[in-house]
Amino acid sequence: MRLLERISASTRARVTGLATLFVLLVLSLGSVVLVLALSHSISNSLINSAQQDAQSIVAQLKTGVSPAEAATTGRNDVVVQLLDAHGTVIASDHSARLTVPLLTSPGVHKSQVVPGEHDKFTVVALRAADEQGVRLVIVGRSTEQRDETRAEAAGVLAVSVPLTVAALAWIIWFSVGRALRPVEVMRQQANKINAAHLPDRLALPEGDDEIPRLARTLNEMLDRIEDGQRLQRQFVSDASHELRSPLAVIRQAAEISQSHPERISTEELAADVLAESARLEGLVSALLTLARIENRTDAPHEQVDLDDLVFTEVSRQRDKAGSVTLDVSDVGAGRTIGNPVLLAQVIRNLLDNAVRHASGVVRIGLHQGGGTATLVVEDDGSGIAAADRARVFERFVRLDEARARDDGGSGLGLAIVASIVHEHGGSVRIEDAADGGARFEVRLPMAPGDD
């Protein structure tokens, strides 16, 4: 029973069943139409033959042939009657049996019973215009040929149609099974792929139809899953390393203070602990921001004035910018649809990065047009090499590894920028600034109605 249930539920069985049923219905209907058409054709042929015989008899009567001679045919499959004006049979080729008129007026009867005959006859009555006292000529032709031909055709179709349908069902079953065999192979291979065998890939069937394309798509999906897991493992490893570093500094300072109180004062210990705690807090906050973005818990939903966010973040940044000048002379109006908290984070991270690498000035620009709000943050620092511009948006990437930790970031700021901008349907890219530094350009969809 389970085997039957599996077979009935399979695509192969459904396709074969539906196709077989459709073909059976079409062939059955076609067979009925064919038999009816064949029967109709033979009936018309009998009628035409009977009419020709009747016309021939009328022509003979006109030439002086007697009714008795004209009615004699000598054939068993033909009957002839000649009637006078009163409807009396005056001549017949079977005078002993055909004493009763088969028809009494001109016309056609396709299936007439003839006394003394087992077969039915197609009978035609034709007016003779009182030739030698004959008013009506009746000729009948046996329908035996029609009935036998119809029966033979029906018998042949009754055998050939089921055989044809059965052969077609087998062909469909075999063809569908062969076509779906690569799918079953892929299913078995996919069933074996798990976390331990994630690098494995599905074998690509030959050809370029839907099944090979499906295999390639599934392999590409596995590539993305593997890349995602690899990035996740790398992220966990990098995050663990970054979190371990400030903890190690705090622990080292505490151990030195405990073992050698004279080597580190309470103020120095507190300063180290506070500095590393702040670094830990920044890392944890950045990690939570990334997790929130990836889980889409802060989906864009309101209109945001980007120029207000820019001025607010610049005002905050000036307190710690030191000698670096923040130039906002190119900031104009700009509105988008989004989350103001996350968009403020984008501006804050870009400013932090620019101030950290600037030599003396950071220029901020904002303008909108063509359906896009464009934010530009550029510095006059050493810039970013073209080969590294994609890498800086990856997590925990710091190009200057020799830089002191206090001067460098966590390696998450630009990754957060890229994630937030992407979540808002925008894009971010890096170019060379006019002063030789790095120019970050963020493009976001403009708020509706601001064109």
UniProtKB/TrEMBL annotation:
Native species: Nocardioides marmorisolisilvae
Keywords annotated in UniProt: Kinase, Membrane, Phosphoprotein, Transferase, Transmembrane, Transmembrane helix, Two-component regulatory system
Protein name per the record: histidine kinase
Recorded GO MF terms: phosphorelay sensor kinase activity
Gene3D superfamilies found in the cross-reference section: 1.10.287.130, 6.10.340.10, Histidine kinase-like ATPase, C-terminal domain (3.30.565.10)
A Pfam family matched in the record: HAMP
GO cellular component: plasma membrane
Ranges for domain HAMP: 177-230
